[in-house]
Amino acid sequence: MRHMSLSPPRADTKPTFNERLIHIYTLCISLFFLAATPIAVLYTKEWDFFDNLWRILTSPCKLITDYFALGGLGSTLFNTAVCGLLANLIIYVSKVHANATTLAGYMLIVAHGFYGQNFINMWPPFVGVLLYCIIMKKKVAENIHVAFFATALAPFVSEVLFRYSVGHFDHTVTQVTWGGVLLAIVCGIAVGFVVLPLLPGTTAMHRGHNLYKAGLAIGLLGIFIYAFMYNTLGIEAPSDIQIDNPDYFSLPYAYRGFMNIFFLILFGITFIVGFCLHPQGLREYGKLLKCTGYGTDFTDKFGMPLCMVNIAIYGLAIIAYLNLVFILPNIFPQLPAGAGFTGPTVGVVFAALTFAADGQHPRNVFPIVLGYILLFAIVVAICLVSGLDIPWTLSTQAYINGLAFATGLCPIAGKYGYRYGVIAGLLSATICTVTASMHGGFVLYNGGFTAGLSALIMIALLDFYKVKPKHEDDA
Questions:
Q1: Which conformational region is residue 137 in: left (phi greater than 0), alpha (psi within -120 to 50 degrees), or beta?
Q2: Cα separation values, 269 from 208, 273, 316, Å
Q3: Residue ranges per structural domain of the chain
Q4: Are 263 and 314 in contact (CB under 8 A)?
Q5: 396 with 375: CB under 8 angstroms?
Q6: H helix or E strand, kind and range, residue 330
Q7: What's the mean pLDDT when you consider all of the chain?
Q8: Which of 10-14, 127-131, 149-153, 269-273 has the lowest mean pLDDT?
Q9: How far is CA 475 from the centre of its chain?
């Protein structure tokens, strides 16, 4: 197999320009969240900021818990900023040779800071991975990115701490027991402990055709955890917590204006800096767009400045797509109302950018998007002919989140051609709404899990019908 994102960084000790730029860029993103926090507080008049932040930290947070609704815009940005800064500190202290997978791990940390993860529940799974490395005598620095990925199990920790160990959840009072604290720590460390040994086997199953490789491993682990905690023991499974935030839910597109400006500034600065550091970037960018995305570290092949150009262009394309699908129900009243710039929506913008330095670019992601659009068109046609109500639209929250992670299937489009990319996207769109129920919402990496299952199906079909790759793997 060619270069895999789970392979260890190089062994030399002197930081390269790419490594230093990754350190600086991720730190700047964290600081950008922090700087946006007081602006958001003033914009939304979130005078109960600390109460909202406390609610985010002390509530069960199954997928998809909207932190904008549970807390507020400012408190969510602050939570994400702290999670990001903690990740920056870990990267610095561990002296990891930052590469594309380090950037990917960081992106998922800040992505999940908007829904389901906070700077309390992220630690036990993270420590579990580190503990495994220490016991098995593996280099911690070479597996920091895996520890970042393991924080996708953060909702499991909050569930044990704030509901499972006390019997029920009451939003009016924080109920925690010492036994619950101990159980949450032990269970969180235990699940983190087994993430790393699961990765090689699950990655081999789809042979690297899903860039969100940890998604399949963590998703399967989540199924086992959920089944044991509830079905096996005969305990009634918990429901989603009910959030009463009428001011927030009255907004038709949530914080559309604020978040559009936020992303335009972020991606604008990213593009300008990347272009200034690589003036030939636009000419070189054409070469990057020709890559299949399979086993290619763009930071090694093109340099981090061009990766920043890719992040900016790809990110702006995501924002354009979201704004378009948000207004579809207004143009076509038959369509059900969808989501807007909710916490999960904003989070998955960063999730969709996770591997923008390691295989993803607009050209190989576009067929996956077409697969979602094709399934939507088929559903609409069937419903119109049969007289059924149209059940979902492209701006339905589950499909927004599903598509963000389905972009990890882009190597299939890159290697085998557009039509197979479209089929992969359609498969992922078909199952993206049912996979969360399999692990009870304990896995924030649900879209990566869905993409992993879709990749298994696609690779099996491609092998059975002896479909030859249309393009050679990237050198």
A1: left
A2: 32, 6, 12
A3: 246-464
A4: no
A5: no
A6: helix 328-331
A7: 92
A8: 10-14
A9: 27
**Which one-letter amino acid corresponds to residue 471?**
H
Q: Scanning the structure block, which residue is given the tokens 């350190």?
A: 23
Helix axes 100-112, 73-93, angle to 10 degrees: 150
Q: Are 346 and 256 in contact (CB under 8 A)?
A: no
Helix (H, G, I), strand (E, B) or coil at 254: strand
pLDDT (tens digit, 9 = 90+) per residue, 165-204?
887 777 767 788 999 999 999 999 999 999 999 999 999 9
Task: Report the C-alpha gap between 430 and 356 in whole angstroms.
Answer: 25
CA-to-CA distance for 290 and 279, rounded, in angstroms?
Answer: 19
- Tell me if 146 sits within 8 A of 96, measured CB to CB: no
Single-letter amino acid, residue 154: A
Q: pLDDT-derived band of residue 138, with 50, 70 and 90 as boundaries?
A: very high
Residue with tokens 């955890």: 225
38, pLDDT greater than 50: yes
Percent of the residues in the chain that have a pLDDT greater than 90, as a whole number: 84
**Residues 352-355: contacts with CB within 8 Å, 24+ apart?**
352/314, 352/318, 352/403, 352/404, 352/405, 352/407, 353/107, 353/311, 353/314, 353/315, 353/318, 354/104, 354/107, 354/108, 354/111, 354/211, 354/212, 354/408, 355/5, 355/100, 355/104, 355/211, 355/212, 355/408
CB 289 within 8 A of CB 313: no
In which band, very low, low, confident or very high, does the pLDDT at 13 lie, cut at 50, 70 and 90?
low
Residue 67: band (very low, low, confident or very high) from pLDDT cuts 50, 70, 90: very high
Residue 225 contacts by C-beta under 8 Å, 6 or more apart in sequence? Answer: 153, 156, 191, 439, 442
What is the rounded average pLDDT of the residues 280-304?
A: 90
| Contact by Cβ (8 Å): 125, 146 | no
